[in-house]
Amino acid sequence: MEARPTSQRRSLSVAAKLALLALAAAAPLLGGDYQLRLLAEILIIGTAVLSLDLLVGFGGLVSLGHAVFFGGAAYAAAIASQALGADIILMLAVGIVTGMTAALLMGVVVTRTIALFFLILSLIVGQIVWEVVFHWREVTGGADGLRGFPVLTLHTGFATIPLNNGVALYLASVLLAFAAFLAARSFVTAPIGRALLGTRERQLRMSALGYSIPRIRLMALVASGGIAGAAGALYPFVNQYVGPNAVHWTMSAMMIIMLVIGGVGSLYGAFIGSAIYLGIQTYVSSYTDRWQLVVGLVFVLTVMIMPKGVVAGLKAAFGRRKDVEVRS
User: Fold this and answer.
1) How many CB atoms lie within 10 A of CB 142?
2) Alpha carbon of 66 to those of 32, 130, 298: distances in Å?
3) Contact 233, 70 (CB under 8 A)
4) What is the mean pLDDT of residues 188-195?
5) To the nearest 10°, the Cα dihedral for 158, 160, 161, 165?
6) What is the pLDDT of residue 80?
7) Is the distance from CB of 12 to CB of 315 less than 8 angstroms?
8) How many whole angstroms separate alpha carbon 52 and alpha carbon 49?
9) Which of 122, 151, 108 is nearest to 237 (CA)?
10) Which residues lie below 8 Å from residue 219, measured CB to CB, with a gap of 6+?
11) 241-242 and 146-147: which strand pairing?
12) Sequence-ordered list of residues with C-beta below 8 angstroms from that of 38, at least 6 positions apart, any chain
C-alpha cells in the first residue's frame, strides 16, 4: 500500500478542521435555544472528558474520582455566584482553583499507586466527597442540589453582557473547549507530557533515570483538575442546576465511557464521545427508558470494531479509502 504524501495528509487535516469550524459557526443559526444548550453541555462535559484523557490516555491512570474536580468546581461556582455574582471570568477562576486544589489533595493520596490501586483509591476519595455533598444540606442543598443561580454575565469594562440564552452559553462553551484543547495539547507536547508518557510505558527506566514518578503524576493530575474545574464552573449555568450526581463515581464512569467511545489518547475524541453519549441520552430516552442499553451496545460495538475509538477508526477507514483512490 502506498503512503499518502505528507502534503495530502496535511490538506485533509486542514480541510477537516475548517469543516468543524464552519459547523461550529453555523450552529447558532441552525438550532434553537434547547439545541444550543445541549451543544453547550456536550462541549462542557467533553472538556471534562478531555481533562480525563490526560490521565488515562497519556499517563495510564484510570480514575473513578475525576467527577470530584468537575462537580466540586460546579458546586463552588454555584455557591460563589450567589455571594459574588456570576461574572464568567470570576466563575472560571473559582472553578480552576477548586479543580486544581481538589486534584492536589487527591494526588497526595493516590499518585504513589497505579492501575487497580489508583482506581480504587480515587473511587474512595470520590465517594467521601459525595457523602459530604449529599449530607451537607445547608450548603450544597443535599439530595435536592442547588438551583436558581444569578445570570452568567461578562463584564467588558463598558457594559455587562448577560449570558443567559442558548447562543451566549454555546459560544462561551466553544471558547472554553478551544482553550482547553490548546492547553491539553501544550501539556502533552511539553517535556512534562513526554515524561508522563514515559511513566506509562517505562516506569522502571524513568525511575532509574532520576525522574520522580509521583511528582510527574501529581503535576498531570493538577493540570487535569484545572481543566475539569474550568468546565465544571460553567456547568451549573447551562441548566440552572447542579446536584450530587455531578460528584458521584457514576459521573466519572460516564466520562470513561465517553472517552473510550471517542478514543483514548485522542484529544478530539473526548468531544466526539461526549456528543454520542449525550445525544443518545437526550433523544433515545424520549422514546424508551432503556437508553442505557443503547449506550452499552454502542460501547461494545466500538470496542469490537474500532478498539482505538471512533476518531481513530474513522481516520483509518478514510485513509484506506484515499489510498485506494490514489493507487487507482
Assistant:
1) 15
2) 32, 12, 23
3) no
4) 91
5) 180
6) 93
7) no
8) 5
9) 151
10) 192, 196
11) antiparallel
12) 278, 282
Q: Return the SS3 of 113.
A: coil
Whole-Å CA distances, 172 to 77, 78, 166, 304: 16, 17, 10, 36
Query: Distance (Å, rounded) from C-alpha 126 to C-alpha 109?
Result: 12
Pinpoint the alpha helices (H) of the chain. Answer: 6-30, 33-59, 67-84, 88-110, 116-135, 137-140, 166-189, 191-201, 203-208, 213-239, 249-262, 269-283, 291-305, 310-327
- Average pLDDT estimate for 175-191: 92
- Provide the residue type at 318 as one letter: F
279 touches 264 (CB < 8 A): no
Residue 6 has pLDDT above 70, yes or no: no
Instruction: Give the span between the Cα atoms of 47 and 228, in whole angstroms.
Output: 7
Which positions ≥6 away from 132 have C-beta within 8 Å? 140
Q: Looking at the predicted structure, is the pLDDT value of residue 103 above 60?
A: yes
Amino acid at 63: S
Distance CA 234, CA 78 (A): 9
Q: What is the DSSP letter of 289?
A: S
C-alpha grid cell, residue 4: 499518502
* CA–CA dist 296, 257 (Å, integer): 9
Please tell me the predicted confidence (pLDDT) of residue 162.
84
